[in-house]
Structure formats: C-alpha cells, structure tokens
User: Which sequence fits this backbone?
C-alpha cells in the first residue's frame, strides 16, 4: 500500500519521539489488519522502536495472543471499549514494549448492527504505569477510508503520550 505523505510524516514523527525516550511500541490490530504496523515499518529505522504487532482479527486470536477472556468478548463484543482496552494492555503484557495501541471496529461494508454501525471503531492506548486511554470513533466512507482513518487516529493517540 502507498501511504499518504502526511501520514508517513506522522509515523516518522512518532518514531522520532519514541527513539528520543527509548520507548518501544507494539500494536494490536483487528479491523486495521496490520495497517498500523505496516505504516510504522514503512519508515527506515523503525526497528529501533517498533517491537511487534499483533494482528488479532478473529476473536480466537484475541484470546490466544492477547489473553482476552471469552467472558469479556461475550459480554461486550469484540467491537467495544472494554475489548480495545484489554487488547492494548495485552499487547504490552505479551511483548517487550512500553506502550501500545489497539484498534477494533467495523470497517464494512457489512457487519454493522444496531448501536454499532459500520465505521464504529474503538482505539485504546496503554503505557506502562499509566491509565489506559480510549476513544470511540465513527468513521464514514468505504472500507479503505475507515481503516485509514483508524490508522491515523491510532498514531495520534500514541503521540499524546509524548506531550
């Protein structure tokens, strides 16, 4: 995929900030399917601070790789604040990273339900020793624009830790 120049600049800025503070980053991605990791690793030298990415598209992958409990998935659904937070925390716990971002949502064109329409995305970010942050988004457009919007928002959420 070819990323827009402004998004590549955002990723490069994030990596510069992380490198300056010796912070390692992990991702946990569902609806973005590794897009955040792909963007970060598009930047030369990203291996200095990008520790790993978990693509946990299926619920079983969330359970196996991030230790998300089945009861949490049953109660709130994969597309929820609670699962996004657990994914972000799980990505740090199951890696050598200091911080993470997690994305779960409905990119469409199908899959939307009452209360969780297509474009609903939950993004959480965790930094060791800090409270996990969460935001819910409602992106519009087709699948690729929803995924790109979620990727952009995820980068911005990671950068907030450096403010």
Assistant:
């Amino acid at each position: 995929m070819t990323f827009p120049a402004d998004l590549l600049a955002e990723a490069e800025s994030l990596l510069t900030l992380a490198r300056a503070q010796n912070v390692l980053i992990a991702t946990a991605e569902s609806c973005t399917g590794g897009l955040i990791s792909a963007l970060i690793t598009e930047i030369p030298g990203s291996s200095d601070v990008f520790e790993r990415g978990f693509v946990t598209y299926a619920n079983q992958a969330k359970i196996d790789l991030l230790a998300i409990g089945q009861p949490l998935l049953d109660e709130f659904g994969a597309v929820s604040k609670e699962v996004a937070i657990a994914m972000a925390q799980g990505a740090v716990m199951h890696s050598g990273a200091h911080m993470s971002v997690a994305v779960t949502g409905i990119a469409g064109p199908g899959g939307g339900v009452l209360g969780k329409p297509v474009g609903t995305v939950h993004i959480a970010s965790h930094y060791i020793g800090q409270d996990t942050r969460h935001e819910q988004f409602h992106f519009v457009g087709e699948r690729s624009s929803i995924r790109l919007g979620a990727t952009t928002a995820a980068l911005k959420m990671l950068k907030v830790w450096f403010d």
About this structure: The first strand starts at residue 25 and ends at 29. Residues 120 and 140 are 9 Å apart (CA to CA).
